[in-house]
Structure formats: structure tokens, C-alpha cells
């Protein structure tokens, strides 16, 4: 290692508290010397990553299967290990053949992250099938490399309701307590920048197989220190994944918008999409980047592209880097960059046969081919110091050819990343740099003064404000390719007279004879609009969608005056049907404006630049 880099690394270790990197014994115990030949170059900072036997780390949606037989339907499974690259050119095995406190070992790992202070690694791991083989959250303390479970321990209550798994391999009914403790997966963990070491993760603890398919749903969950159980932060009936706390303290996450709720052809109701019932809107099927307040109260748009995007992170320059589906297949094998706050589409609010209006805002991507004509695929990007991107990359067809690479973020459409490490036996991906980060402190949660009960469930307050306010007109994507806008404009004054909240019930798996009782859609609450505001208490805990109705009792509809180069104009339905909202008990749920950004941020509020809590020399 060059002297300058070694000195730089020494300063890093002392400044960030990573003294373990200065202790040769700690390194030697974990080093895999055989992997040294696969290291193409060293980096000035430690990097944690996964090495797995297949490509399931690139899959975003859960598999299609009901999972009635023990151990239930697991997701994203492989054989894998957690590794670390050190600036000294060593490759450490952080999990392989290492004993857990209960004596077991991990055979697979997924989605690592680093605590905000840079001293702990959080990741999803699973044991061999003799256990149950489902993912749980684990932590490695980098001060001594100790390994411990954060979920799945004896005190973890597991699922909040009975899950799909109900029989053993002989068809005998399993005890309810066992079903609750086993049939779920915890993945994608992060630790929040608060005093309690609260961690947030994606989980299937709220049993549901969705509408019109049988994929186990995933939501974002939050587990505070000393709490007896985690609490849900989102309500998707499909999948919410990849939470990541931005420097602004908001939690970015990937939302699978696969809502089946549509506006009826007469515009007088909301119903499930069906071949026997006509509608004026179409069901959605797209991955979007949304955000949550760390307390779970505010939900809004971070980027809604005309294509699916997942694993979104912020770069030092404030732009967003993400994985995207390829042009030919739904696989996420491209990596691109876009502006924060990008409004590129609003699928649930666009009537059938109304074409998308062309915008002047686009994303840029790494090249599809290298200089020799080889096809390139990219995945799992993450920020790296000096406004760089650390990611997985391959220029061959085999899974083992996928390795870690580094690239500058300035001209990704022109540059080919540099390969850092590639173990030919594994898919090397999901890298994250071991550095402390600066994240804005989280404010206090608000409380609803009056908490009552509806049907035995606690209520939360829905507060919709500024329904006609054009605060989002200057967001990226709002200007057409003819330089006029906004494409997505607010409704005219007094058009929306009433807000209706519809509950999309989750499936139930507690019937003594029927394995799956599918949820139904029903009207939950109605609020009159007064001025530009509507509010009221709503029964909490259920996935909900919201629609604005006019004086004739129809879903509101309005046009934009902005035309693109082909004369197309946008038409908007007053239907927030590309996501499910979660009304927390005793909390406020904010909805600002009637626009495709939902409770989005104004252009001036999109300041999410990645900031490292370290003084670079």
C-alpha cells in the first residue's frame, strides 16, 4: 500500500474510531488469503459487500407462491457470505463459518449497510434449513467483530397475524405460535441517526399475498431500542424495499406500485381491476422511489420515473443514483442517475388512452456496451467519497463474472467503471463503504390530541392541505420538451368537494378450513373539503387509497394547458392510487396538494447531498 494511502487510512481509523483496523490479530483471524489474487486494486476506505451464488440480490419483487408448507415461501435465497475489503489489500470473511451466540452459522447474507457512526454492519442473514432458512437481521460490531441477531431472537414476537404457512411436510396443522415465529423474512436493514440505535428494515411480518397474485407483501418497519416489537411504517400490499436514510434525515425507499384499485368508467367509484368491470384508469405496475419521515408520518415522492427504479441513494452532488429495469427484460441490470424530486409519471392518475407527455427531464445511464462491444450490466450502486459510485458490474454472461467496480458520477454515460474485486466463484455485489455519515437529527413526532376507536382499532388523523396549491410546478419533469409547464398541474379551485378514503383489506390466514381469505375493498371514511383543506379521523392500520370527488359525485378530472412538441396535454384524475397509505394510531398523516408528487417536497427542499462525517485530506 502506498505510504500516502497508508497514512490517510491511519488518520481515518483514528478519527472514526475504527481501531480494529490497526490490530493485525483481528485482521488475520478473518482474512481469506486465497482471495487476494482477485483484488484488482485497493481503495482508501474499507468496503463491505456480499458474495453469493446467484443473482437473487438483483431481484426486487418476492417470488410467486402461497407458501402453505413449512418453512413457508422464502425469498431472495442463495448461498452467500459477507466480506470486507481493507485498504491494506486484504479480504476478510465476516460471516462464513463464524458461530452465532446460539451456536448456529449463517449460510447466506443480503443487503448490508453501515451504521451512521461507521462502527457497525447491519445485514440480513439466514441459517441452514435445519433451522427454517428464513432471513433475519444481524449486526457485526466492528470494534471486535462480534456477531449477534437483531431480529428472530426468543423475544421477537414475529408476525402480527397468522401467516400463510400452516402445514408441516406431512400435511399436519402447525401450532399458531410456531407459524407466527417462523413464517416471515426480515431484509434490507439500516440504522437511523438517532440516540436509540433504531433500525429500519423491510419485512413480511404483516401477512398478505396481495391482490391478483400470490407474492408475500413487504413493508418498511421500525424497531426502537428496548421496544418489545417493531412497528410498520408503510402499508404496501405488494413490496416496499431498500430503505436508506438520506442526509436530510428522510428515509428513501423503493415502492412496488402494483395497485389493483382503479376508477370506474362512470367515475363514481373506486373498485378492483377486473375483466368484468370497466374502468377509466388502469392498474399500476412500476417501482418508484418514495420517502418517509423517520417517525413514519410524512410520505412523499423522491423520484417517479417513466420506468421502474430501485435501490435509490443520494450522491455528494445531490443527484440520485439507482438501479433500473433493462430495456429488454424486467431485470434490474442498469444503473442511472436522475435529479431528486423528478416527476416523470403518474400512472394511477392518468386516464386510459391518454398518452404520456414528453418532458425535458431524463435520466442518464452507464453504457450498455464497452469499447470492445461486450454487453455490460450494472447493479447495486452506492455513494463513495469524491462523488464516486461503488457498484457491481459485469461484461460477461456468467453470474461469477459480476464483481465490484468504481466510477466517477460526473459522466457515467461515457465512462466505464474500474473493476476493484471479482471472485469468479460468486456474484460480488451490494457494496457499502465503511465511513461515518452526517445525517440531520430527527424531530419529535406529533400527537393527535383526541384518540378514539372505530371497530376496536385506534384512529389516526388524515390532514389534506393546499389541494389547489401549485407548489410542485418547478419540480424536475414538470416542463415539456416545448419548454412549457407544469405537466402535472393542481386541480381548479373548488373542483374537489369531497375526499374519500378506501381501505384495501389484507388477506387473512386464520380460517379453520380456507387457507387464504382474500381482502376486500370498501369505503372507509369521507371528508368534506373546506377551502383547500380536508381532515378527519380514520381507523388506523389498514392499507388505504384516496380519491377526490367533485360536486356531481364523480372522481375529479382536469387538464393541463402545457403541450409537448407533438401537441399532447396531460389529463389528471383525482386519484392517489399508485400507493397504499398507512394511518398510524394516534398520529397525523399529511397529504399536501393534489398532484402526482403526493406529499412531496418543493424543489428547494430537495437537498439530500451525501455528506461524510470525516475530514478528508
Structure write-up:
This protein has 617 residues and is mainly β. It contains 3 helices and 37 strands. A 5-stranded mixed beta sheet has the order 12-13-16-17-21, with no helix packed on it. A 4-stranded antiparallel beta sheet has the order 3-2-1-27. The chain has a 4-stranded antiparallel beta sheet with strand order 4-5-6-7, with no helix packed on it. It is globular.
Average of the residue pLDDT scores: 89
Which regions are unreliable across 5 or more consecutive residues at pLDDT < 50? Answer: 1-9, 448-456
The count of DSSP E runs of length 2 or more, i.e. the number of strands, is 37
Question: Hey, roughly how much beta strand do the residues contain?
Answer: 25-35%
Query: What can be said about the biggest beta sheet?
Result: 5 strands, mixed
Backbone CA Rg: 24 Å
Tell me roughly what share of residues is in helical segments.
Answer: under 10%
Question: Given the helix and strand composition, which structural class is it?
Answer: mainly beta
Q: Figure out the total of helices.
A: 3
Order of adjacent strands in the largest pleated sheet = 12-13-16-17-21
Identify the overall geometry. Answer: globular
**Distance between the ends:** 17 Å
Amino acid at each position: 500500500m502506498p505510504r500516502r494511502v497508508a497514512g490517510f487510512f491511519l488518520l481515518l481509523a483514528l478519527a472514526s474510531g475504527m481501531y480494529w483496523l490497526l490490530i493485525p490479530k483481528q485482521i488475520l483471524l478473518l482474512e481469506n488469503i486465497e482471495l487476494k489474487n482477485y483484488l484488482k486494486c485497493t481503495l482508501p476506505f474499507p468496503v463491505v459487500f456480499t458474495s453469493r451464488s446467484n443473482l437473487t440480490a438483483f431481484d426486487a419483487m418476492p417470488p410467486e407462491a402461497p407458501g402453505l408448507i413449512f418453512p413457508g415461501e422464502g425469498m431472495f435465497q442463495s448461498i452467500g457470505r459477507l466480506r470486507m475489503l481493507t485498504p491494506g489489500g486484504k479480504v476478510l470473511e465476516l460471516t462464513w463459518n463464524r458461530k452465532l451466540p446460539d451456536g448456529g452459522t449463517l449460510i447466506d447474507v443480503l443487503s448490508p449497510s453501515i451504521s451512521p457512526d461507521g462502527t457497525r454492519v447491519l445485514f440480513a442473514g439466514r441459517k441452514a434449513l435445519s433451522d427454517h432458512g428464513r432471513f433475519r437481521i444481524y449486526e457485526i460490531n466492528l470494534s471486535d467483530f462480534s456477531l449477534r441477531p437483531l431480529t428472530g431472537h426468543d423475544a421477537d414476537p414475529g408476525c402480527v397475524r397468522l401467516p400463510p404457512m400452516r402445514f408441516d411436510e406431512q400435511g399436519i396443522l402447525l401450532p399458531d405460535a410456531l407459524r407466527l415465529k417462523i413464517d416471515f423474512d426480515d431484509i434490507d436493514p439500516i440504522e437511523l441517526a438517532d440516540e436509540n440505535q433504531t433500525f429500519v428494515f423491510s419485512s413480511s411480518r404483516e401477512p398478505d399475498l396481495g391482490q391478483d397474485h400470490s407474492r408475500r407483501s413487504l413493508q418498511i418497519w421500525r424497531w426502537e431500542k428496548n421496544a418489545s416489537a417493531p412497528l410498520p411504517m408503510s402499508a404496501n400490499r405488494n413490496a416496499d424495499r431498500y430503505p436508506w436514510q438520506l442526509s436530510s434525515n428522510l428515509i428513501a425507499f423503493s415502492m412496488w406500485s402494483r395497485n389493483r384499485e382503479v376508477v370506474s368508467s362512470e367515475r363514481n367509484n373506486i373498485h378492483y381491476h377486473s375483466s368484468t368491470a370497466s374502468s377509466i384508469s388502469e392498474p399500476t405496475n412500476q417501482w418508484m422511489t418514495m420517502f418517509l419521515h423517520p417517525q413514519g408520518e410524512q410520505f412523499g415522492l423522491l423520484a417517479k420515473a417513466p420506468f421502474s427504479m430501485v435501490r435509490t441513494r443520494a450522491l455528494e452532488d445531490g443527484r440520485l443514483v439507482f438501479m433500473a429495469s433493462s430495456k429488454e427484460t424486467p431485470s434490474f441490470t442498469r444503473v442511472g442517475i436522475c435529479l431528486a424530486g423528478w416527476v416523470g409519471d403518474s400512472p394511477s392518475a392518468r386516464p386510459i388512452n391518454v398518452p404520456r407527455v414528453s418532458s425535458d427531464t431524463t435520466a442518464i445511464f452507464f453504457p450498455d456496451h464497452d469499447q470492445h462491444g461486450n454487453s455490460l450490466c450494472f447493479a447495486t450502486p452506492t455513494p463513495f467519497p469524491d462523488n464516486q459510485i461503488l457498484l457491481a458490474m459485469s461484461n460477461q454472461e456468467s453470474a461469477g463474472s459480476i464483481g465490484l467496480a468504481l466510477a466517477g458520477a460526473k459522466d457515467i454515460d461515457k465512462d466505464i467503471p474500474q473493476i476493484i474485486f471479482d471472485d469468479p466463484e460468486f456474484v460480488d455485489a451490494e457494496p457499502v463503504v465503511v465511513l461515518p455519515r452526517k445525517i440531520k437529527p430527527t424531530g419529535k413526532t406529533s400527537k393527535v390530541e383526541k384518540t378514539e376507536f372505530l371497530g376496536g382499532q385506534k384512529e389516526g388523523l388524515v390532514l389534506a392541505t393546499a389541494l389547489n396549491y401549485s407548489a410542485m410546478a418547478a419540480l424536475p419533469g414538470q416542463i415539456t420538451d416545448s419548454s412549457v409547464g407544469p405537466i402535472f398541474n393542481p386541480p381548479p379551485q373548488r373542483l374537489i368537494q369531497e375526499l374519500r378514503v378506501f381501505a384495501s383489506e389484507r388477506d387473512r390466514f386464520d380460517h379453520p378450513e380456507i387457507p387464504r381469505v382474500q381482502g376486500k375493498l370498501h369505503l372507509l371514511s369521507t371528508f368534506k373539503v373546506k377551502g383547500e383543506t380536508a381532515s378527519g379521523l380514520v381507523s388506523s392500520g389498514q392499507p388505504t387509497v384516496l380519491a377526490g370527488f367533485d360536486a356531481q359525485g364523480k372522481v375529479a378530472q382536469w387538464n393541463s394547458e402545457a403541450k409537448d412538441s407533438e401537441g399532447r396535454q396531460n389529463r389528471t384524475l383525482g386519484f392517489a392510487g399508485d400507493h397504499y397509505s398507512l394511518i398510524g394510531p394516534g398520529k397525523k398523516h399529511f397529504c399536501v396538494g393534489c398532484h402526482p408528487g403526493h406529499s412531496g417536497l418543493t424543489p428547494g427542499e430537495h437537498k439530500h447531498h451525501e455528506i461524510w462525517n470525516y475530514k478528508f485530506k
